[in-house]
Amino acid sequence: MPKFVDEPGFDHSEMPAVGVLLANLGTPQAPTAKALRPYLRQFLSDPRVIEVPRVLWWIILNLFVLTTRPKASAEAYASVWADEGSPLYVIAKKQTAAIEKILQAEVGTPIHVALGMRYGQPAIAKALAELREKGCRRILFLPLYPHYSATTTASTFDALAAELMTWRRVPELRSVFGYHDEPAYIRALADSIREVWTRDGEPDKLLFSYHGIPLRYFKNGDPYHCLCHKTSRLVAEELGLDRDRYVVCFQSRFGREEWLQPYTDKTVEALARAEIGRLDVVSPAFSADCLETLEELEELNREFWVEAGGKTEDYRYLPCLNDRPDHVRFLSDLVLRNLQGWIQTPAEWDRPVIEAEIAISRQRAEEMAAAGVEEDAGYGVPARSGES
After folding, report:
1. CB 378 within 8 A of CB 9
2. What is the pLDDT of residue 386?
């Protein structure tokens, strides 16, 4: 028999609110092998990430991967860890706060933003509970992956759905499953690149590096590969680059099977050997800098470049959009657009009227309770407050 999370009795005094759940991949709690082991176990046990027969993969994961990889991953995390925590977490918290500030200034309806991670903490379940406690009965779900993939976007939605399956009262839900070709996102990417070029000069070639997925997933219908190429083309057009000035590659492969190609590390080495001159590297797949950008692209691939004959000063990694104002503004506008019909402007939101209607509903419930009659759950207020 399913077990559902108990909730307090219906509160006729609750002010209806809207919630926004931002989600990202996740991060370990500390750059140590002890912290990496449960994080990697959760991540690599996800059937969306590893499509291998479960029994076979359990053996490989527990007898081989988790006996060696946590230590190596901990060393990599340690090289980029900040005093406040992992870069992804620190930046995501800044993004969340900045977006909430904009929304609360421009929306009259009570609105709250929470951050949840697919793996590790703060978990999606915790973020959902936070929004529920604030009276959010309508929730917009926005995974911060610009490019849809079953390995990221769909997996994160799985975690959301799994948590809501335990709720007695499920909120109204809307989802945004990507924004790889949104004009404002493309402009923000191009502007972040153009600012560096204006200040420090243009490179001879621009390399777009995206997190890879197994080629088998793409052949089975995952659209990620095509979405990445479209983003690259649109950014290049915004920058006025000819096709021979940029290349699209895929990084972070895991295991022995073939992944999307060309591979970033092999391409970096080939470009260095070809003496192409200066190389700039960007990674539009990530909304925030993380291990895969700061350690893999900034540090490790620079080593590949130098070992293949390139000069260290000719290799330059350009940061992700992070909490740049234009990025935060774009994400806020994306949220606002997807909240249409759920929210009102400050001018439209008449709090005294709503409070009066809630008071009437509460009084009616108290009178019926005193008379021994239970009222149907509902605010008894117009639909604009979120209940009928």
Report:
1. no
2. 41
